[in-house]
Amino acid sequence: MKPRQLITVGVVAVATVAALNTVPATASRPYDPTAQSLATLGLRHGLHVGTAVNATALNDANDPQYRRLAATEFSSVTAENAMKWESLEPTRGTYDWTAADQLVEFAKRNRQSVRGHVLVWHNQLPAWLTSGVADGSISKQELRELLRKHITTVVNRYKGKIWQWDVVNEAVSDPWDTPNTLHYKGFWAENLGPGYIADAFRWARAADPKALLFYNDYNIEAFGSGNPADDKTQFVYDMVKGLLAQRVPIDGVGSQGHLGTQYGNFDTLQVTAALKKFAALGLATAFTEVDVRSQMTEGVQAGDSAEINPRLQASAANFSVLMKACLAVRSCLSYTVWGFTDRYSWVPDWFNDPPEGLATIYDENYQPKRAYQEVKSDLIFAGPPYVLPRSTPRPRHREVTAQSLGRSGRMKVLS
Length: 415
Ligand code: G3I
Description:
- By secondary structure, the protein is α/β, with parallel strands linked by helices.
- The chain has a single domain, classed as TIM Barrel, CATH 3.20.20.80.
- It is about 40% helix and about 15% strand.
- The chain has helices at about 5-20, 40-45, 55-60, 65-70, 85-90, 100-110, 125-135, 140-155, 185-190, 195-205, 230-245, 270-280, 300, 305-330, 345-350, 370-380, and strands at about 50-55, 75-80, 115-120, 165-170, 210-215, 250-255, 260, 285-295, 330-335, 355.
- Strands 1-2-3-4-5-6-8-9 form an eight-stranded parallel β-barrel, surrounded by five helices.
- The longest helix has 24 residues, at about 305-330.
- It is globular.
- The relative contact order is 0.11.
- The chain binds ligand G3I.
- Ligand G3I binds near residues 123, 124, 169, 256 and 346.
């Protein structure tokens, strides 16, 4: 190589390293990737590593560590509860934006993206709404109009500030529901029929032309039998394909990623295959609520390491499976954990018979667990040719036409 070429190669290499790492290496201080945050390491791949944020913990003056880690380790935040309808409009007609605004401000200060969660869900609805429908004082027609107004109001308030919206959450039943054939379940489907899903995406798009609009659900990490009667991933796949065919402005599918070490779960290749199938529809994907819980046996609670260690290791392996699959698929835009510390996880409150816990990447004292290290190492050791920078879709608009469906059936987006 001629001296000039050598210089060029050297300059490019240094520029690349400088671009990828926030703290460039020097002779006296070699670059140490393990000292970088998950946020920084994720952004090397264009991938946002996010967390759900607990509004009470964020405001706890006695717990600065929570704020610090939420601000520094993650490049994306999601309100764990603050943007849900019962939080925003506890009394009919009166919105309380305090906690939601606070998180959006926090994200701005820390240069983080925001995943909006959630516009339409059957849980955590205000009592005035559910009781009004139950006693007949709110008609079906009025309910539809209330939903339109809610979506429009919330999306409009945060227009331009939300990267991805979970527009519709958990619309599909599980095999353990009755009837056990998968179907559209819950308050909205029961009262408005499944057409509310397309309506919700159209209303959200009308209010914000730029946010990426997601359908979000759990137990869709990998395909199963391929029969939509019992394979939830297949059911959701068919649903979103149908929405696209109706020119509904949906941009992505969020796979929540609530796993448990007591279950079989999936390997990286199975999860990668599922993300790729959604990508082939022209959709972005994201892991939106990752945590991996374990049963808290008497041994675990008594501190028996022979019972604790296998759980921590299995949890780490499952966090890693989802991270590796996400890294492998360019349209997987973000990997969000559902709370980052066992101190504030929803798991012990929710699963208490038998008790479950140990679900997050930091323990109750903010010590990083093996899961944190594994996710970090996935980010450090990933790169070309199998891991490439993210490819972000342009938000879909109504002008997606039948002609824009290519011969492959893939959606080309005109907007
Ligand atoms: O706000 C009340 C408070 O006033 C009261 O004193 C306290 C007493 O228990 O309850 C508080 O409400 C709780 C709320 O979280 C806020 O902390 C509810 O009881 C509790 O049920 C609720 O749990 C949330 C759960 O959604 C409800 O479905 C969890 O924090 C939240 O992590 C969880 O998140 C969901 C996602 O949104 C969707 N996917 C599944 C995920 C896990 O369930």
